[in-house]
Amino acid sequence: MKSRTRIPTTPLLMILPSFLLAMSIIGYPILDLAWTSMQEVSRFGKMMGFVGLANFAEVFRDPLFYSSLVRTVIWTVAVVGGTLIISLPIAIMLNDDFYGRGLARVIVMLPWAISLTMTAVLWRWSLNGRAGLINATLMDFHIISEPIEWLATAPLAFTVEILVGILVSIPFTTTIFLGGLSSLPQDSYEAAVVDGAKPWDLFRYITLPLMKPFINIAIVLNVIYVFNSLPIIWVMTEGGPANGTDILVTYLYKLAFRFGQLGKASAISLIMFSVLFVFTIAYVLMVMRQEHDNTAEEVKHDA
Amino acid sequence: MAWAGSPAYAKTQVNFTVAEYSSKTGPYFEEVAAAFEKENPDIHINIQVVPWDTLLQRLTTDIAGGQAPDISIIGTRWLVDFASQGIAEPVDSYLTPEFKSTFIDTFMAPSVIDGKTMGLPVAASARAMLVNTDLLDKAGAKAPANWDEFYTTAEKLKAVPDTFAFGLQGKEIETDAYFYYSLWTHGGDILKGDGTSGLDTPEALQAVTLYKKMIDEGLTQPSPTNYTREDVFNLFKQGKVGMVFTFPMLIPQIKAEAPNLKYKVLPFPEGKAKATYGVTDTLMLFSSSQVKKEAWKFIEFAYKDEWRTKFDHGEGFLPVTKNVAAEKYYSSDPDIAGFAAGLPYAKFAPTIANWEEIADTTVRALQQIYLGQAKPDEALKAAAADINKIRSK
User: Fold this and answer.
1) DSSP reduced 3-state for A279
2) Best A39, A40, A43 residue to mutate vs chain B (most B CBs within 10 Å)
3) Hey, which residues 255-284 in chain A have their CB within 8 Å of chain B?
4) Inter-chain contact B170–A243, Cβ cutoff 8 Å?
5) In this structure, are strands A39-41 and B12-20 parallel, antiparallel, or unpaired?
6) pLDDT, tens digit, for every residue of A227-268?
7) Which of A74-88, B216-230, B331-345, B373-387 has the lowest mean pLDDT?
8) Exposed, middle or buried, B58 (CB in 10 Å: 0-12/13-18/19+)?
9) Which parts of the chain are coiled coil (chain B) (predicted)?
10) pLDDT of amino acid B351
11) Which chain A positions have a beta carbon within 8 Å of B171's beta carbon?
12) What is the pLDDT of residues A193-225, one digit of tens each?
């Protein structure tokens, strides 16, 4: 009992240097951001004096902040959800042994190597109303009779941007899932097949539960990544028309680099950091408790 | 590591940040600097060429980091921000009456803030209307001189298949400028005499209602909110649009990419007033500079007629100095003359603080109107109120 409550000092001392280094690298920018968000900042980055929470008050009075926040949530949930739903079957297919599997895997990964900005530029061209490849193709196949102006209205433009967002997130997510699938124990499947399980049962009762840790990692990483992702929306519509596709990060970019309101931009940036921080902690706690419950259950069964 | 390459004897170093207009800009300024250094062996000019897209960000970082250059080319619309933060040096004490008189007054005016000259005009352009004369002939229409004719011409052009009558921009940079052309010629202005927004005036409503009506009647390309300036110009180059409003830099593009296109440069349609949009860039001296005297010596050198002629012809700009403007080229070349014709009545974006935010508010209102999300008068009134708030009026 005694040995359990005693705090082991030696290991703690040993990780102290790297802990301090990590804290200064991670902590300094955040502290600096917090400091900036409570200052009046000139458009050339000069601190003009402490203003307390005035920047935050201004952000919370701004209707564009709330509409961007709502859209950020839709954007994140839709892109991450869509990515997971598509990536898992792709990973399962690529995990099967078939002729040309290596090539197929490379093809799925390749888009990952292209910069997001370039992908967005290509889509912007493809979606051009008069000269775009998409409309030309759809019209050749007589699917549509008139060109569609994909990016002219906010609802359609935002939908298209979500689809592009899903498309570019698939390679990374598929990679995580492939890694997970290759580590699954094959004997469970063999045993289940012997017991007469159908493919859907295999997926539902073996693959999905065993893949849970990988799905959780994919969710956390994708949420952080997508929530903060600027290039797709910025390149395709700059948050327009009429601010109808603005998410927090595009709005923040406009505030900082177009309007020169660095204080207000820092405040939004800090709010975004807090949202992600709370989400990540809450999610990790939830997942850990679940795993703890599962282990407890298993222990009970054994007894 | 400034000392690493320093010569044996101390030359005075002048750092000059140049905005890149085209691939010719950098070599041109290197040439000017070399000629200047020949006459002034004790001064060295360091030229830094920065693309327009990143210029403001670059200067912001340089200034924040205490590494500001001695002189820089900037967009005149940013000058108020530079001046109000004490970053720009007033140049009145350097500006001899003789040197001052070389400039065309219209272009000097935007650089004067609170009675002080905060910089010199370095480049200028004005806007005008381009019409596709082939399409006009096909439609049996004539080039319009006023807004009523513009509308009837557009109606005739609509009958020509696979083309659009009027290319209207509704997306991204200068969407507001495309509206100001109409606003000014209808007799309105961006700001009223008392400094409040001019968007809630009858003239502004008239200007935007005309555009909206043309969108609804199919006299523009469909869904202008999907078309940037470049998209609209591309349609014109492809011969698919009868009339566009544009800048002089489109002319070399047409000559290179669509040499067979038949076009004419005309003034904007008139309403209650004649107007064009004049745009200038400013050469600014930094107040933090330690070598202002040397920097100014270089500036005076760079404004000699031979250099200005070379610069303006090379980049396709309109002249900012009287001697260059008097050249025959600016009245004999029909394209250049078409743009230069508007200079006497050119209007400029007001030099006011927070201009980018005001422009953004205007663009939002315009897009809501073009999309039919808001009624023109309501959207304009709301935008005017927002702008007044931004300006604390």
Assistant:
1) helix
2) A43
3) 257-261
4) no
5) unpaired
6) 999 999 999 999 989 999 999 999 999 998 888 888 999 999
7) B331-345
8) middle
9) none
10) 82
11) 151, 237, 240-241
12) 888 888 888 888 888 888 998 999 999 999 999
Distance from CA of A127 to the nearest CA of B (A): 10
Residues of A in Cβ contact (< 8 Å) with B221: 129-130
Judging contacts by C-beta atoms under 8 Å, the chain A residues touching residue B75 are none
Distance from CA of B212 to the nearest CA of A (A): 15
CB B49 within 8 A of CB B26: yes
Is the CB of residue A45 less than 8 Å away from at least one CB of chain B?
Answer: yes
> What's the complex ipTM?
0.83
Mean pLDDT confidence for B135-160: 95
Mean pLDDT (chain B) is: 91
Q: Is-contact A180 A214, C-beta < 8 A?
A: yes
Q: What is the pLDDT of residues B231-260, one digit of tens each?
A: 999 999 999 999 999 988 888 889 889 999
3-state SS assignment for residue B196: coil
Q: Is the Cβ of A117 closer than 8 Å to some Cβ of chain B?
A: no
A60 in contact with B, Cβ within 8 Å? no
Find, in chain A, the residue whose alpha carbon is nearest to that of B358. Answer: A259
- A290 — pLDDT class (breaks 50, 70, 90): confident
Q: Which long-range contacts (CB under 8 A, 24 or more apart) does B366-369 make?
A: B366/B170, B366/B175, B366/B176, B366/B179, B366/B208, B367/A240, B367/A241, B367/A242, B367/B170, B367/B171, B367/B175, B367/B225, B368/A242, B369/B208, B369/B211, B369/B212
**What's the pLDDT score for residue A300?**
55
| Residue A98 Cα distances to A24, A93, A95, A162, A177, angstroms | 49, 9, 9, 32, 18
Q: Inter-chain contact B170–A241, Cβ cutoff 8 Å?
A: yes
CB contact, 8 Å: A201 with chain B? no
Helix, strand, coil fractions of chain B, as percent rounded to 5: 50, 20, 35
**For B309-319, what is the mean pLDDT?**
88
| Distance spanning both ends of chain B, measured CA to CA | 48
- Chain A residue closest in CA terms to B221: A130
DSSP helix/strand/coil, B348: coil
The Cα–Cα gap between A128 and A135 comes to 8
The pTM score is: 0.85
Length of chain B: 393
Reported as a single tens digit per residue, the pLDDT across A5-49 is 677 788 888 899 998 998 899 889 899 999 999 999 888 877 888
Gap between the Cα atoms of A20 and A16, Å rounded: 6
- Are the Cβ atoms of A240 and B85 closer than 8 angstroms? no
The amino acid at residue B70 is D
Other beta carbons within 10 angstroms of residue B287's beta carbon come to 15
Q: Which residues pair with B220 in a beta bridge?
A: B166
Closest Cα in chain B, distance from residue A139 (Å): 15
Residue numbers in B near A243 (CB within 8 A)? 364
Minimum distance, in Å, between the CA of residue A83 and any CA atom of chain B: 27
CB pairs under 8 A between A and B: 81
The structure tokens listed for B248 are 């002089």
Percent of chain A past pLDDT 70, that is, above it, reads 95
